[in-house]
Design a protein that fits this description.
By secondary structure, the chain is α+β, with helices and mostly antiparallel strands. The chain has helices spanning about 40-45, 80, 100, 105-115; strands spanning about 5, 10-15, 20, 25-30, 30-35, 55-60, 70-75, 85-95. The chain has 4 helices and 8 strands; from the N terminus they run E-E-E-E-E-H-E-E-H-E-H-H. The two termini are about 25 Å apart.
Length: about 120
Amino acid sequence: MRFEVKVGSEIIGFSELEGGDAPMGVAFGRLVPTPAYASIQPYCIQHRDQWKFIPGMTVQERGGAPIECSGGIQIVDFSPELGEEGIQIHLLGVTNPPYDELFAHHVEAYNKRFG
């Protein structure tokens, strides 16, 4: 599933949110930036070691409502060292829609490993 990452109404990137920690309600994945990401990239690089809130940033399924996260959304950008593949997005504490509805594959993988 592909998710849109926005600041305000502008799409700054996309992610599959391919990784996760089901018990913690965390989803993460590579962020594929659009040209609009350049407007916040220096901020993300500067604050990659300590999370700082980016006002108006949301993640949503294409055409869907923003995903609510009790712990916020974080972009970790190591692109100066690793190239474009070094940009990740983390959703911390997914609450709505419920984590198991959005990321059933993460829950299934966790249950197979520890269940």
